[in-house]
Each structure stands twice: as structure tokens, then as C-alpha cells.
Amino acid sequence: MANHFVEWRYDYHGTTPAVMTEPFPSKDEQMVFIQAYIDTNKDELGNHDGSSVEEIRKEMEAWLMGTHVGWGLWGLVQASQSQIDFDYFAYSMERLGAFRESLVKWSVVD
């Protein structure tokens, strides 16, 4: 879910596809999506552990760092290897910067 919400920020068909131009989904948008996900996937999820939508949302926030660092490192590899016309280096730097911002946020949380 963390990766899904980050992807909301990119307009891959716009003039700057390697840059997060859209706002991160609001807390309300996140809550609606998570509830819809749970409701839609009840059969596949089996015995849902009873986590509240808010608990899942908070866990998703913790995984934002993982998605940022993973895609940031992937972008660095692509910048040196890919023949596709895409600014992988800028994408990587943005994702690693977002990781650093999240790390600072989580470092000050009790």
C-alpha cells in the first residue's frame, strides 16, 4: 500500500515524469482506500486479523521508507544501465531524498 500511495504522486505522462508532482493522498483518502481494499478482498484475505483501518494506515506509513529506498536504489542502477529515455538519476535522488525525510520523521517519534 505504501508503494501504491507514493505512485499517486507521479504523472508518468506529464512533462516531468520522474518527479513527484501530485500531493500525497490525504489521510481521509488513505482511509477510504484501505477500507475499500479490505472490503473488496475479504475472501482472499481469509481471517482478517482485525486490525483497524487506522492501524493499517500507520503500518503503511512505516513502509514508506522501504519503498522509497528500494526504488531509489533501483533508479541508480537504471541510470547506469537503461537505454530508456527517462531521468532515472533524478528519480533516484528524489526517492532517496524522500527516504531521508521519512527517516528524520521516524527518528523523532517516541
Automatic annotation (TrEMBL):
Pfam families membership: Choline_kinase
Family the entry assigns: Belongs to the choline/ethanolamine kinase family.
Protein name per UniProt: Uncharacterized protein
GO cellular component terms, A-Z: cytoplasm
Domain of life where this protein originates: Eukaryota
InterPro entries per UniProt: Kinase-like_dom_sf
Gene name linked to the record: ABSGL_09470.1 scaffold 11253
GO biological process: phosphatidylethanolamine biosynthetic process
GO molecular function annotation: choline kinase activity; ethanolamine kinase activity
